[in-house]
Design goal:
Blueprint lengths: L1 H16 L14 H12 L16 H22 L4 H37 L3 H49 L3 H7 L6 H40 L1 H21 L3 H24 L1 H7 L2 H39 L3 H11 L5 H18 L1 H4 L1 H22 L14 E6 H4 L15 E11 L6 E11 L4 E4 L6 H8 L6 E9 L6 H8 L7 E4 L10 H6 L34 H10 L4 H6 L8 H4 L2 H15 L3 E5 L7 H13 L3 E5 L11 E5 L11 E5 H9 L1
Parallel strand pairs: 1-5, 4-8, 4-9, 6-7, 7-8
Antiparallel strand pairs: 2-3, 2-5, 9-10
Helix pairs in contact: 1-3, 1-7, 1-15, 3-15, 4-5, 4-7, 4-13, 5-7, 7-8, 7-13, 7-15, 8-11, 8-13, 9-11, 9-15, 12-13, 20-23
Protein name: ABC transporter D family member 2, chloroplastic
Keywords: ATP-binding, Membrane, Nucleotide-binding, Transmembrane, Transmembrane helix, Transport
InterPro entries: AAA+_ATPase, ABC1_TM_dom, ABC1_TM_sf, ABC_transporter-like_ATP-bd, ABC_transporter-like_CS, ABC_transporter_sub-D, P-loop_NTPase
């Protein structure tokens, strides 16, 4: 029913969307007046659909917009109802519609009870009045639970739908590093808000509208017959009143859609600026940039404030009409049938019955009038989620410039490669090849600027490589290519994994991702997860038990995820303590109250301490190959030397980026990268033997 209701809704929404600028999109976050509108939307027991209104013929361009909106709605809404949970979801939906049907029947019953009640009152029939009053009280006692249970069933189904969709979108957002590509290439704004706010709004509003359409259908069947029986001209008055009200509402509120789009974007920009102040508090304090930040924050707030002022004025103008429209219907049906009462053709209770039936049917016809802002907001939600969904389905274009060539990144198991190098020579276990780079030309993903040209390199076990060069020459970009973050360019990068079984090749090819047990990347500024000190050390190789909800159950009922797939056991508390001592951080356990203490670690630990935590992760996870991007830049030379000695003792092969000459003694090879010349086709790199350089220096 939800998916069937969508064409009706999109037809109504089309009247609004044609006035808006779809080029801007931003996360939906209802302001107070929007919340008030939506609460009204959900409280109307017999609201409905504009499919009952005659629609003007759509021109081809408008028809295509309508089809696009419907297609996006279907694409976002359908997966849940055809998922592995479809049977339970459809059963819950059937229960909601059954309860809705029951509440409509109860409303019809109250319509007749009201007629007899007021007839007894007008006739001064105390006995009949007492009897009807008793019927009314019994009806309330029996009917109210159905209304409560209907709303409860609807909200729980909406929550279940939102929970499924949140997990569905999170899995796709975090798959194949889509989150990184979206952020690094600025593809869309605020994906976090789309997952949090838009999904919540979409599920609740879609379900509410579907119930509204269902109620409207039953209302029309039930109350139209009542209205025709009382006085046919009253039905004609109803049609004219609803058609006129819809046309005037669309005219008065045509600017609201675009104002809502702009408001959400401006609010998101202001909120993002505040988050940046919080995350960069120390840097701002060092620079003394408080006044600059104040000016930026006030400028963004002023922009949101000015737009909100326009939005409130537009809403005020619309409410002048909609409030009058809503209150006039309290007397309009009575005014139409009053002459019949005065002439004695109908009883007094029939006036009340006609008012009730009139209100029910008018609510069905007047969806646009009553819910203009709610519909426009929902249209925006469909547009934003549809845009996000399309982006995730297209697997995030890696190169916006549409470059045809792409770097080939593959993972081969040692058994599959039979321990042979490219010229067929058999390798020993002690000299196993870990990485092979062939004819690699690396370009920036945004504008195609060449950073590295025609690079060849082989890395064997214990063959430590240091990458050096001027800033901006492409050192970190080369590691991004190795990590699979950048694919712009051409050439081939092959990793040789030390698998424990024959499934490694198939697993790596199908997933397209490296295992945390094989390769680990350490950035210059380590990522500090939200959690305990224990969780900092176990990241990313092992996950800890999922947080329990207050009721004691896990978030989705699934078992804790174990990321390591190479059979390596999770480190014990003693292992963690010994590793902290190895990186000279043993004192922080007592300093912060134990391994399970919770702190904002990126704030309470210095950058040097954070880098040592990253090395502790490296020692615990024991990868075959580590990629270090200036991972000791915040450390003194003594601590730097100590950490490199630790990972050498652990048997980890590493590739480092650095500027200090003291790093050369911890590496066997040095790759020098110079700034690429766009006019030259020669390689901008050279490989040197680090041991030979150290010997020359020693001499």
């Amino acid at each position: 029913m939800i998916l069937i209701a969508a064409p009706v809704f999109t037809t109504c929404s089309h009247l609004l969307l044609r006035h808006s600028d779809h080029s801007s999109s931003s996360p939906l976050r209802y302001e107070s007046f929007n919340r008030r509108k939506i609460s009204r939307f959900r409280s109307v027991s017999a609201a409905s659909s504009s499919s009952l209104l005659p629609q003007p013929p759509l021109r081809p361009d408008k028809a295509s917009e309508l089809r696009a909106l419907w297609k996006r709605f279907w694409k976002v809404a359908a997966p849940f109802w055809f998922s592995e949970d479809k049977d339970q979801a459809r059963l819950r939906l059937a229960v909601v519609f059954a309860l809705t049907l029951a509440t409509t029947g109860i409303s019809v019953g109250f319509n007749f009870l009201g007629r007899d009640f007021y007839n007894a009152l007008a006739n001064k029939d105390q006995e009949q009045f007492t009897k009807q009053l008793l019927y009314y009280l019994c009806g309330f006692a029996g009917g109210i639970p159905f209304f409560v249970l209907r709303d409860y069933a609807k909200e729980t189904l909406s929550l279940k739908w939102r929970s499924w969709m949140t997990k569905y979108y999170l899995q796709r957002y975090l798959k194949d590093q889509s989150f990184y590509k979206i952020q690094s290439q600025s593809m869309i704004d605020n994906p976090d808000q789309r997952i949090v706010d838009d999904l919540s709004s979409f599920t609740g509003t879609a379900l509410s509208f579907s119930l509204t359409l269902f109620s409207a259908t039953i209302d029309l069947i039930s109350f139209s017959n009542i209205l025709f029986t009382i006085y046919p001209p009253l039905f004609v008055v109803l049609l004219l009143y609803s058609f006129g009200g819809t046309a005037i509402s669309v005219f008065l509120g045509k600017g609201l859609v675009n104002l809502n789009f702009l408001q959400e974007k401006k609010e998101a920009d202001f909120r993002y600026s505040l988050v940046r102040v919080r995350e960069n508090a120390e840097s701002i304090a060092f620079y003394g940039g408080e006044q600059n930040e104040m000016q930026l924050l006030l400028r963004r707030f002023r922009s949101a404030f000015d737009n909100l002022t326009e939005l409130l004025i537009a809403s005020r103008n619309l409410e002048f009409f909609t409030d009058g429209y809503r209150y006039l219907i309290q007397i309009l049906p009575a005014a139409v049938v009053a002459p019949m009462f005065f002439s004695g053709k109908i009883e007094f209770g029939v006036i009340n019955q006609s008012v009730s039936a009139f209100n029910h049917i008018l609510g069905d016809f007047s969806l646009v009038v009553y819910q203009f802002q709610a519909i426009s907001a929902f249209s925006a939600v469909i547009d934003r989620l549809g845009e996000f969904d399309d982006l995730l389905d297209n697997n995030i274009s890696r190169d916006p410039s549409n470059t045809v060539e792409e770097i080939e990144l593959t993972y081969e198991s040692v058994e599959r490669s039979s321990l042979q190098d490219s010229n067929g020579t058999i390798q020993s276990r002690e000299n196993q090849k870990l990485l092979e780079i062939e004819a690699l030309t690396l370009q920036t993903p945004t504008n195609g600027t060449t950073l590295v040209h025609n690079l060849f390199a082989d890395i064997y076990d214990k063959d430590h490589l240091l990458i050096m060069g001027p800033s901006g020459s492409g050192k970190t970009s080369l590691l991004r290519a190795m990590a699979g973050l950048w694919r712009s360019g051409k050439g081939k990068i092959t990793f040789y994994l030390n698998s424990q079984d024959d499934s490694t090749q198939e697993k790596c090819d199908s997933s397209g991702k490296r295992s945390s047990g094989d390769i680990l990347f350490l950035p210059q500024r380590p990522y500090m997860v939200l959690g305990t000190l224990r969780q900092q050390l176990l990241y990313p190789a092992w996950s800890t038990s999922m947080e329990a909800t207050p009721g004691g159950s896990k978030i989705d009922g699934s078992p804790p995820l174990r990321i390591r797939d190479d059979g390596m056991d999770k480190p014990t508390t003693d292992d963690l303590m010994r590793t902290l001592e190895k990186v000279r951080l043993g004192h922080i356990v007592d300093r912060f109250g134990g391994l399970d203490s919770l702190h904002e670690w990126s704030s309470v630990l210095s950058l040097g301490e954070q880098q040592r935590v990253a090395f502790a992760r490296l020692l615990l996870s024991q990868p075959k190959l580590a990629l270090l991007d200036e991972s000791t830049s915040a450390l003194d030379e003594a601590n730097e030397a100590h950490l490199y000695q630790q990972i050498q003792s652990a048997g980890i092969t590493y590739i480092s980026i650095g500027h200090r000459q003291t790093l050369t003694k911890f590496h066997n090879k040095i790759l020098h990268i110079s700034t690429a010349d766009s006019k030259s086709m020669e390689g901008n790199w050279r490989m040197e033997d680090a041991n030979a350089i150290e010997s020359i220096r020693g001499a």
